[in-house]
Amino acid sequence: MLAVLLLLSGACVPMARDGGGADVTGQPVRLTFIHTSDVHSRLYDYDFTPSFTDNELGLQDGLGPYGGLAEMATIIKRERSMAGRVLHLDSGDCFQGAVVFNEFSGEAEFRGMSMLGLDGAVVANHEFDKGAANLATQGAAWASFDLLAANYDFADSDLPFATELEDLVLPSTMYEMDGVRVGVIGLANISSLNSIYDQSNSMGIRVIEPGQAIPDEAAKLRAQGADIIVIVSHMGLDNDIEHARTYADIDIILGGHNHIALDPPLVVTNEATGKRIPIVHSGAFAKFVGRLDVVVQDGAVLSHRYELFPVDNTVPEDPDVAELLAEYSEQLDYDLNLEQVIGYAETELTRYGTTGGDSMLGNLTAEAMRLYPGVETEIALTNTLGIRSDIPAGDITLDTLYNAMPFDNTITTMFLSGREVQELLDFNTERSTDRGCQSQAQVAGIRFTMNCAEARAEDIVINGVPLDLDGTYELATNNYIAHGGSGFEVLERNTTQLDTTISIRDIVKSAISSARTLPQAGIAQEDGRILPVY
Q1: Domain annotation covers residue 160
Q2: Which of 406, 414, 386, 423 lies closest to 482 in space, CA to CA?
């Protein structure tokens, strides 16, 4: 036990990260895992107001700007220098979330993550945001780390990029850590990609269920001599818990997708073996870097210790990564003039409502969608998570707008029956009930009670008139959920869809520029149009 305590306290001689093949039989050995997740293109530091949870996790008010890949590199290099056997794993979604992705399609993200010394990353849903062919191109050109996904199979596809992805994306891999063999299995997201279960889906992916993928890959890794099995996952916390509880070969799970940080890690007891499995989530948007130290002896994880490092303005930039990122920022400034001021926010404009219902940015976006010339529909609905960050008080710049609305979504119009409107709002209520009764959609032209106790929408009013189940209503929505994204099947099956090709970000920019100062009466204000009832 003394040896274990000495190892976790850092009182050991650092050893080489890879190779060597030292004989550690019968010895307690410390392994260090650096963990990152859901960077979402936040390669440059940015301003925002940390939440209460951020504060509790160590990200304090007044220490902005926060995040940034060069700052993360400083932390990661420091922690590597103070450890022996080190593996850096990332739980995916390094793409999409800032203008650098819109302009360079993931090149900057993959080059930057490679410079961090990243060893392996799971392929996540936003890695496909510019298509599977783009992922293949960027991965082959710029990713010096392993891309992992045991539950994606491209082998049966005839699409031209499928062979490249089949070679590029590994189901699992082995890392030699000076006498300890660590098997790592990637579990990719299967809940947030449109039509992934369709036989002819446009990404050429055949889904392999975790119940097959995990045991199959674990058996291969054990046969190759793996001492421990690590899952690097982008399936979300609930799935991570279920997998830790169910599958006997798992020793550690490093997870992402939900944008949460767990400190300390959640520990789940496996039902078959009684092993206690640590589940680590290290946050999102480059706000934190996680470090998990474990002590392993003869294939058993004896103990673990975790530390979460906030990324704030007290962390200096790594000069090498900063130099790389400067290439892209200079080009962005030349192409887009990101510091262009498009309006002014007297207070912070928030993407979530204070009650869990409608929000300032949600109402601004939905109203702008339905009122835009050439659209002018009766109602509008867009997904809340399409708005990715608040807009801070002060000058609203083009860069700020891109951070809040990074997706290149367009307005799609369609006609819905009254019954379909009821079904649509029922689905939103059910989906929101599972997420703390925080509305997962924002609306215009609609008022309703989101009854989370019954998982049903009630008292629906359309432009001041109660919903007519036999009526017809024209809807403006975004093309992502119109195609069934986030489970909006009632929209996906609609046959009256028309993609206007009008950029939602552009019409919000126009609305901000027209108003000049926000919020104003009826513009970017909460008004109770979505009333949550618990």
Answers
A1: yes
A2: 414
**pLDDT by residue (tens digit) across 247-295?**
999 999 999 999 999 999 999 999 999 999 999 999 999 999 999 999 9
Quote the pTM value.
Answer: 0.90
Q: Which of 327, 348, 375 is the last residue of a domain?
A: 327
Q: Which stretches does DSSP call E strand in 315-431?
A: 341-345, 379-383, 394-397, 410-417
Are both 345 and 321 inside the same structural domain? no
Dig out the tokens for 108 from the structure: 């900057």
Same domain, 130 and 213: yes
Is there a single domain that holds both residue 125 and residue 221? yes
Q: Which residues of 459-496 are buried (b: 16+ CB within 10 A; e: fewer)?
A: ebebeeeebeeeeebbbbbbbbbbebbbbbebbeebee
CATH number of 69's domain: 3.60.21.10
Do 370 and 280 share a domain, yes or no? no
User: Is-contact 249 225, C-beta < 8 A?
Assistant: no
Which of 18-32, 158-172, 304-318, 476-490 has the lowest average pLDDT? Answer: 18-32
Tens of pLDDT along 71-130?
999 999 999 999 999 999 999 999 999 999 999 999 999 999 999 999 999 999 999 999
Strand duo 472-478 + 379-383: pairing = parallel
Q: Which among 169, 206, 164 has a CA at the least distance from the CA of 186? A: 169
Are 314 and 406 contained in the same domain?
no
How far, CA to CA in Å, does 304 sit from each of 292, 383, 471? 7, 39, 60
The candidate with the shortest Cα–Cα distance to 462, out of 378, 372, 534, 343, is: 378
Domain co-membership, 306 together with 347:
no
Domain range enclosing 406:
339-533
pLDDT tens digit sequence for 49-74: 999 999 999 999 999 999 999 999 99
Alpha helices per DSSP H over 205-351: 210-223, 237-246, 319-336
Counting the structural domains of the chain, the total is 2
Q: Tell whether 421 and 311 lie within a shared domain.
A: no
